[in-house]
Amino acid sequence: MQTQNQVAGKLYLVGTPIGNLEDITFRAVRVLREVDFIAAEDTRHTRKLLTHFDIVGKDLFSYHEHNERDAARQIMERVLRGEHGAVVSDAGMPGISDPGQEVVQLAIASEIDVVVVPGPSAGITALCGSGIATDAFSFYGFLPRETNRRKQVLEALQYRKETMIFYEAPHRIEKTLQAMHEVFGERFVVIARELTKIHEDFIRGVLTKEGVSFAESPKKGEMVIVVQGAEETAKEPAKNTLLPIIDHVQMLVNQGVDRKEAMREVAKLHGVSRRDVYQQLLLEDKNK
Ligand code: SAM
Questions:
Q1: Which atom of ligand 1 is nearest to 15's Cα?
Q2: Ligand 1 within 6 A of 223 CB?
Q3: Atom of ligand 1 nearest to the CA of 126
Q4: What CATH number has the domain spanning 10-120?
Q5: 61-120 pLDDT, tens per residue?
Q6: Topology (CATH) of 123-227
Q7: Please, is 22 exposed, middle or buried when counting C-beta atoms within 10 Å of its C-beta (0-12, 13-18, 19+)?
Q8: Which helix H or strand E contains 12, and what residues bound it?
């Protein structure tokens, strides 16, 4: 990303390991060593990482979801003065279910060069090992915790054909898998657990009423849920079939469609017989 600002320094978005420290890149280590300051989600966590790679005496300050806006402004001020800064999260790529997006948007608005130093990300790592189609996928991060909101989000995804990737905390995994079953039905699913760590595990199964068909329920560790997309033939019901049958016929008639033709069309869309539509209209006429 090349911009016009000649005085300003650069803003580096640096990917860090999601478990296995060997996954850090040579470039990430060099950039973290060279920058003037590092904005970290948890400074203690990042200091440990830096110490492991013999990077000491760094100017570290916190940049997390609760101070994202203020910290982003502070980062901008320093970079605009000519300092080079790095943003890291506790694990993986900043900006992916982690702070990062705000500072990138501010940097773009200030014509500051943003340089991404790519590293591992749990979602992509899980997808690649899942065995589920990788040619088209969507990433949704964490679902809402509130039951109704979570259901609404899942319902909006019910007919998506591509693979879907979600993050989840271990204590919510069972409820989330049950909610997924309620909406998606018996879909193939993979739980990718403790990726890149000693106990890395890919648990494959089918969504069931109890959550999953796995012998042992995955309750511990960090985890990603990868869900197979809907069948190619799955079809989202047309939105206007949600109209009551009588209103639907009337709407088509108002649009100039012949009444008999409207009844035939509505019967087809609602999956009922023409006789059912006719009887509902008769009843409506009687009640007028
Ligand atoms: N920025 C990170 C990334 O690029 O993947 C994601 C951070 S998000 C706050 C943390 C969530 O990522 C965890 O709750 C879990 O769902 C997933 N995650 C992170 N590390 C993981 C790992 N080693 N194995 C499985 N899932 C992981």
A1: 4
A2: yes
A3: 25
A4: 3.40.1010.10
A5: 999 888 888 999 999 999 999 999 999 999 999 999 999 999 999 999 999 999 999 999
A6: 3.30.950
A7: exposed
A8: strand 10-14
